Amino acid sequence: MTSVRQVQVTFDCADPERVARFWCEVLGYVVPPPPPGFGSWDDFSKSLPPEKQGSAFACVDPTGVGPRLFFQRVPEGKVVKNRVHLDVRVGTGMVGEERLAALEAECERLVALGASKFRVLLADGFEESVIVMQDVEGNEFCLD
Q: Which secondary structure element, helix H or strand E, spans residue 118, and what is its range?
């Protein structure tokens, strides 16, 4: 039996590089080096047919632990809630006001990068507080 060793998370979007660079900043990821023979990703993109230029971009965890994120251009815009989303885990181990303060501080940082605060789900005695946000193209994610 074969076992999966790596996972890549793929985002459909209108502007792959813009969304990838946003997530690099959110997660501390980096843009991987361009393919051999190219000095930059821009050089690589220019080598493609016009309809393929700028159609994809990626970012990776510099430690090699987290999944690769891949961003691909699609013609249609986002129209409904994501069925899958990322949880950015900034409040792990924290509860109450300490957790909410950590989430709010990270929210402010991400809003400055172009994210939008969508809603705050306050602790209810069963679940701890979470902030639901949207990235630069409206994809939902949670500060957890």
A: strand 116-121
Does residue 1 carry a pLDDT above 70?
A: no
Cβ atoms of 14 and 71 within 8 Å: the answer is no
Q: Which pTM does this prediction carry?
A: 0.87
Cα→Cα distances 62→22, 82, 91, 96, Å: 16, 27, 22, 32
Count the Cβ atoms, other than its own, within 10 Å of residue 105: 12
Residue 3 CA to residue 108 CA, distance in Å, equals: 40
Given a contact cutoff of 8 angstroms between Cβ atoms, the answer to whether 120 and 128 are in contact is no
Give the long-range contacts of residues 37-42, CB within 8 A, separation 24 or more.
41/17
Max CA pair span of the chain = 56
Dump pLDDT digits (tens) for 47-105: 999 999 999 999 999 999 999 999 999 988 888 878 788 999 999 999 999 999 999 99
The predicted pLDDT at position 83 comes to 78
* Strand ranges, E, within the chain: 8-13, 56-59, 68-73, 86-88, 116-121, 130-134, 140-143
The residue count of the chain comes to: 144
